[in-house]
Design brief:
This protein is mainly alpha-helical and 312 residues long. Helix content is 69%, strand content 2%. It has nine helices and two strands, in the order H-H-H-H-H-H-H-E-E-H-H.
């Protein structure tokens, strides 16, 4: 159910991911280029590449979401209850530290499994015949072409290039996504009408755990938290995926610009200033907020449908 919900969400939000990816690569390490805004990048992409351009990377994005969010939503509860058991707590008890650890653990599992597809997705989205040509370091015609080209040029290990940055990014996002959602949902579900001010919108959802507005409000809060903590790691991941590759005398391939996510963040701050970590934040928020809302809300909806169908 979690994977189906995530694929529903990514269909809507993928254009924002394309814009965000291209903005994060703009002016990399001080290279010159025309100033970009989310609206300009979106407009230029749509004008020169059409609908297919703003939906670049959708295929591998589906596979990645199935692996990542299937793991994140599917393994979250088993991890959480296991951590509760290890610390002598009740299975149903919501423990803040345990929830954070469960979110990070489930996210890391999905990130490792899904790295090859996220790598291809990022490179497909970075390529553009109409924008800064310095960004187009890798050009693939499809997901399969991308995977086969990487294996041919970089070896099988190349499919997991940037996995450390992916783990950092996903762990940070997963650490807060479900815990923030559950925290907000629990708070709103336990809220009583007498605890709110008159004419407060919270009156519509107070004490109603299965109310659509409860799902929506909790998801929005979760999306904002995810974007706030994940943006620097997301920028590092995009740049590590897109960097050129050098082949050493022993045949091993290494990134030409960055040794790892922390090295990438250091060089980025040194050449462009620390605010460069937040390039594409507007586009990222435009993607992550509706993506989180759609993923979590549709997960609740699909679960309710499944439960109702199962009970007859």
């Amino acid at each position: 159910m979690g994977a189906l919900a995530a694929c529903t969400a990514v269909t809507v939000t993928n254009p924002f991911e394309v814009v965000k990816t291209r903005m994060q690569l703009h002016g990399e390490l001080g290279t010159r280029g025309q100033s970009q805004s989310p609206f300009r990048v979106f407009g230029q992409t749509l004008k020169h590449e059409g609908v297919r351009g703003i939906q670049r990377g959708l295929g591998p994005a589906y596979i990645y979401q199935i692996l990542l969010n299937g793991s994140r939503l599917g393994f979250y509860e088993p991890f959480r209850t296991s951590y509760n058991k290890l610390t002598g707590r009740r299975k149903e008890e919501v423990w803040a530290l345990g929830s954070l650890a469960a979110g990070a653990s489930s996210g890391v599992v999905g990130a490792v499994f899904g790295n090859p597809f996220f790598l291809v997705k990022a490179r497909l989205q970075a390529y553009s015949p109409s924008l800064d040509p310095s960004q187009a370091r890798h050009h693939y015609t499809s997901t399969l072409n991308g995977l086969s080209t990487i294996v041919k040029k970089e070896g099988v290990r190349g499919l997991w290039r940037g996995w450390d940055a992916a783990v950092l990014r996903t762990a940070m996002g997963s650490t807060v996504q479900l815990p923030a959602y559950n925290l907000a949902k629990t708070y709103l579900s336990n809220l009583k009408p007498e605890d709110t001010f008159a004419y407060n919108p919270a009156l519509l959802i107070a004490g109603r755990p299965n109310n659509f507005l409860t799902y929506l409000s909790s998801s929005i809060f979760s999306g904002l938290c995810v974007c706030a903590v994940m943006q620097p790691a997301d920028t590092a991941l995009t740049r590590m995926y897109n960097q050129p590759v050098n082949v050493l005398p022993n045949g091993k391939t290494v990134g030409a610009l960055y040794r790892g996510p922390l090295h990438c963040l250091y060089l980025t701050a040194k050449a462009e200033g620390p605010l460069a970590w937040y390039k594409g934040t507007t586009a990222h928020l435009a993607r992550i907020a509706p993506h989180t809302v759609l993923t979590l809300v549709m997960n609740e909806v699909y679960l309710r449908w499944y439960t109702q169908a199962k009970s007859g």
